[in-house]
Fold Glycerol operon regulatory protein.
Amino acid sequence: MNDNDTGKGIRTLQRSIDILECFTYEQPELTLTEISKKIELAKSTTTRLLATLEQNGLVQKDGNTLKYRLGKKLYFWGQIAEKTIEIKETAKPFMEKLRDDTRETVTLYLLEGHQRVCVQRFGSKHSVQHIVKVGEQLPLWAGAGGKAILAFQDEDFIERELTSVPGEQGEKLINELAVIRQTHSSYSFDERGIGVSGAAAPVFNVKGEVKASIGISGPSIRFTPDIVETYQEMVKDVALEVSNELGYQGKS
Amino acid sequence: MNDNDTGKGIRTLQRSIDILECFTYEQPELTLTEISKKIELAKSTTTRLLATLEQNGLVQKDGNTLKYRLGKKLYFWGQIAEKTIEIKETAKPFMEKLRDDTRETVTLYLLEGHQRVCVQRFGSKHSVQHIVKVGEQLPLWAGAGGKAILAFQDEDFIERELTSVPGEQGEKLINELAVIRQTHSSYSFDERGIGVSGAAAPVFNVKGEVKASIGISGPSIRFTPDIVETYQEMVKDVALEVSNELGYQGKS
DNA sequence: TACTTAGTTCCACTAAGTGGAACTATTGAA
DNA sequence: TTCAATAGTTCCACTTAGTGGAACTAAGTA
C-alpha cells in the first residue's frame, strides 16, 4: 500500500532475507527451483546465496531430496530473541491460567504494521487442530483479537483499515469498534472462518497505547452468546492485569 | 582450526550473519559501535546492514538507548526451524520422563563440527541456575555428554580432537573412550567446571552413526559414584529407546 | 567553552556480486 | 536403449551495487 521495503535496503541481504521468508509452517521444505521462482531470481544467484546461508546453518540442505529447510542456527537465535519479547513473558502465566480455567485456546496477538501476529498460544490440550500458529499474520478487521487492537488505534489508522473491508460490513464495524472502546472487550462469531468464535480484550502499554490483545477462541458450538459474554469479562480482566504489569496506570 | 567459513561466501551476506552472531544470551543488546568493533567493519557499512536487518525485523532497535537486539522475525523463523529438528521432537518425551524420574537436569547434545551444541534441556525444576543454555557450544573432549559422542567418531576425527586436549589427560581420555565404546555410557566428575558432574549415553541414528548424546547432570554433592552408575544405566536405556525410534537397529 | 565519543550522511571508486550460457545429472516416456 | 525434459551446478565477462573514509551532527564530560 504505502512505504516499506520496496527498493530500499542492501540488495544482496534483502534477497537473502526473501529466501528465508519463503519458508512457512505449511511449506517448510523447498527446492532450489521453487525458491528461485518464488523470489524471481536467477538460479545461479540463488544457489550462491543459499550456499552462504547453509555454511552458516541458517538453512539446511537434505543431501538426498536436495530440498532446503530452515536451519538450527535460526532456532538458536530464536531462543535468544524470544527472551526480548517483553509482553510475551509477562502475559505467559496469566494466559496459561486463563486456558486452564476455560479449557479453551488462549492467544496473544501483537500489532505489526497493519496486521496482527500471533506471538504466543496456549491451546486447549484436547484439540489437536491448531487454528492459528505462532508467527502467523491475520487481519485487524476480522476476528475478536484483531478488533480489540484496531478499536484503539488513531482515526487515520482505522479509516485506512476500513478501505480493506468489504462494503456493507464497514458501517457495522465502525459501530462495533465504538462499543469495544467502551467495554474494553470484543467478540466474534464465525467471522474469520465458519465454526470459529471468540472473545478478546486489548492490552495497554505504559503509554496507554494498544499494541496487543489477548483472545479466547474455539468452536462456535461451545461459544454460545452467554458463554462468550462470560469469556469477554474474563479475558478483559486478564488483559488488564497484564497491562498493569506492563506499567499501565489507566482505569479498568 | 581447519576449513569452514574463512574467505568463502557472499561477503555482504556473510557480514550480516556475523552481525547477528554477535548477539548472545549473555549480551542480547549491543550498540552500533560495539557491533562494528566486534566484526571489524566500518560504522557506515554496519549501519547500512543493520538498517536492512531492522526493516525486516531480524533486529530491533531501541529508540531510546539506541541498542540493537534480535528481532521477532528470528523468533518466528525459529519456531518453524524447531519443527524440523527431528531428533529433538523424538527425544522430548523420553527426556522429560528421565528428568521427572531423577529430578535432575537432562540435556540433548548434537554434534556440530568439532563441538557439541545443547539443543534441548529439561532442568530440574528447583535449580534456578541454568548451567547450559540451548544453542550453547561445548567441547567434545570434556564432560560426559561430549565424550559419549566423541567415542563413536572415526579414528581420524578422534586423533584430531586429542590435539586440543592438555598433555597428560590425552592418555586417560583414550582409555576412557574405549570403555565408553564398550558400555555405551559415559560419566564425568568436576570435568567441565568444579561442582558439576554427570552421566551420558550416545544416540545412534538409522545408519548407526552417533551425532547426538543425552546426558544427566547436576551438583557433584548429589552425584556420588554409585548414583552416577545408576544414572548411566538409566540414560543408556533412554538413549537406546530414542535411537530405536530414529530407526536404529543395532544391539543394546 | 573546548574536548571526546557515538551515530548519521555523503559520495567517488571499484571489486564484489550478478545472470546468462554451457554443462552435468536425473527422470521418465517412447 | 535413446531422446527429451527437468533440475542443479559451474564459469566468466560486465557493471552496478556495496563500500569506507571524510565530513557532519548530537550528546555527554571536564
In short: Residues 10-12, 31-33, 43-44, 47, 66 of chain A lie near DNA strand D (CB under 10 Å from a C1'). Confidence is low (pLDDT under 50) at residues 1-7 of chain A.
